[in-house]
Every structure is written in structure tokens, then in C-alpha cells.
Design a protein that fits this description.
The protein is mainly beta and 261 residues long. It is built from 1 helix and 15 strands, in the order αβββββββββββββββ.
Length: 261
Amino acid sequence: MAAAAKQDSIMETVKTIVYALLIAGVFRTLFFQPFWIPSGSMKDTLLIGDFLFVNKMAYGYSRHSCPFSMCPFEGRLFGRDPERGDVVVFRHPTEGSDFIKRVIGLPGDRVQVIAGVLHLNGVAVSLTQAPPFQEVFEPQGPQALPPRCSNAPVGAGGICEKERFTETLPGGVSHSILNIANGTRGDDTQEYLVPDGNFFVMGDNRDNSVDSRFPQSVGGVGFVPFANLLGRADRVMFSSAGRRMVYFWTWRADRFFEAIE
């Protein structure tokens, strides 16, 4: 009897673990997708080593985010349209890899950057000077690349700075943007008209981001179709400045559960 009871207990434990894994898998597939920040293109909003969950329900399901192996539709099911200022994860229109950027232009918007200042529909957005963004000049993340600095050259272990501004988009959404140098290739662009069903996205670290300012023909992102959106990034769940997540001494506890603005 005792052996049978022990065996039943083991089987119940195994079933509980299996059910928990199945529920976690369904939860991940239907509602959230994990995403690890691999580059500095979204500093200082997102840092290399930030870990977050993408809200897949925010904009509904497309052929790229569909939880099933085959989706019988070309558009989207459920969800709403993205808004200016949303931080989104999307499937690159030609490369197939996942990117994270901020929505800047909506369908029908005219977008242009002039002397480093974003213009929407012919009007410059509001910019307010903020204290410089500072970080240690050292290898960052799995790729072990050092950051770019506006006060270069900076020696190992020194303080790397970037100019920081608060940018306010039409509608009132405000967020930080960084500037490393003036006159870079993304500081002056042609005027882009965002097509129907597409969005114009940019990184917050403006001089260190390959985004919609650069067409796909030259290795850029170009316009992002609505169907390519995987979801919205709402909150940093975990953050590590080291090359491995298990290096607990590199964890950034002050960024755990931080809202993304």
C-alpha cells in the first residue's frame, strides 16, 4: 500500500509539472513573447541586457505572430492600431529577424529629420535638453562591444557621455532620445510619406540605430507593415549588464519591472 501511495504521489507530481509546462507554453504562445535587448539602439529607454515580454495581444495576431503553425489570413485578428510613441517588436520586412524600435510615423504621416530634429507633417517636434546620459566605457552584453561616446576618446573604465533630450510627439507622448554627434547620415533625410498599412519606426539612440530613416535597399528597415508587428513592449522584467545572465553581480536590480515609456 505504501509503495502504491508513493507511486501515485510521484505520478501526481509529474502530471503537475507537465500541466504547468503546458500552461506556460500556451501562455507564451498566445499572449507574451520573451525578448532580450541585444544592442544599444534604444538607449536610454532600453539597455543592452534588458529582458522583457512582448505583449502579443496589443495589436492582435498576424501571419508572423500567429500562435498556430499555419494562419489562414493575411491581415490581423483582434487588437488595435499602434500609436505614436509605442515601443514595438517587429519582424524585419526583408531580413526576417526581430527588431525593437519606437513608432514615430503613422499611415499618412510625412516624416523627415532636419539637422537632427524630427519633423512630423512639416512641424518640428518639441525637444527639451536633459542631463547627459552617462555609462561606463566597457564591453557590453554578449557581443562585448563598447558604447559610442559624444565625449570620445574615453579610456577603459571612463565615463562615456551622450547628449540627452526629451522629445514630445504629437498627442503628448514624451520620451528620451540620445545624440552622439551632429551631422551623421541619419540627421538629415528626405521627407517620407508613410503608406497605408505601414509605420515609420526609429531608435531612441538616434545615431546608433538602423531604422526607417534608411531604406531596405541600403540595409535599413524602411517602412514596417502592420502585419509584421509582433507586439508592444510595456515593461522591463529583468536586466543584466554582463555577458551571461547567471553573472548575478552584473544584475541591474533598479531596472527590474520598470515601465517602458
